[in-house]
């Protein structure tokens, strides 16, 4: 009988030691998991806010560029206001670049380039009218302005951007 006590005590001691060790490891993992959840939720919210701000800025810029494209100097927005909106949009994109995948970067870049082309051509066209000279890029200007006004390409790029954002957040 004495021969059984030592192995039983050893087994009980091993079980108790393992239980203590497992509870310490579990406690440490729970603490780390909680800190990751907090950190991740902050990043998640920051990304979501950034995407929301970029979409709003993109739409504001489109409205201003289209308005200026149609009305020129009679627009509700000055050239300086539109350039400031471009700068704001560019800064937002630079700030958010760490969160963007390649598809999002490409879509935003394409949208900004389209806006910039229409705005540049608008300025050239209105400047040509003021000097009463023929603008050789008038057809290109009208085509780009029409594309932006109808919004087909813009809508497709915006939808691709939104789908990429949803995919980024695992939203189906």
Provide the fold topology.
Layout: H1 2-71, H2 79-96, H3 102-131, H4 138-150, H5 152-168
For the structure shown, list the relevant keywords:
rod-shaped, 172 residues, mainly alpha, single chain, 86% helix
Describe this structure in a few short sentences:
With 172 residues, the protein is mainly α. The protein has helices spanning 2-71, 79-96, 102-131, 138-150, 152-168. The radius of gyration is 30 Å and the shape is rod-shaped.
Describe this structure in words.
19% of the residues are buried. The longest helix has 70 residues, at 2-71. Helix 3 packs across helix 4 (138-150). The chain is rod-shaped, with a radius of gyration of 30 Å. It starts with a helix and ends with a helix. It has five helices and no strands. The protein is an all-alpha fold. The mean pLDDT is 77. The chain has helices spanning 2-71, 79-96, 102-131, 138-150, 152-168.
Largest sheet: none
Say how many strands there are.
Answer: 0
Computed over alpha carbons, the radius of gyration is: 30 Å
Strand residues, percent: under 5%
Give, in order, the helices and strands.
HHHHH
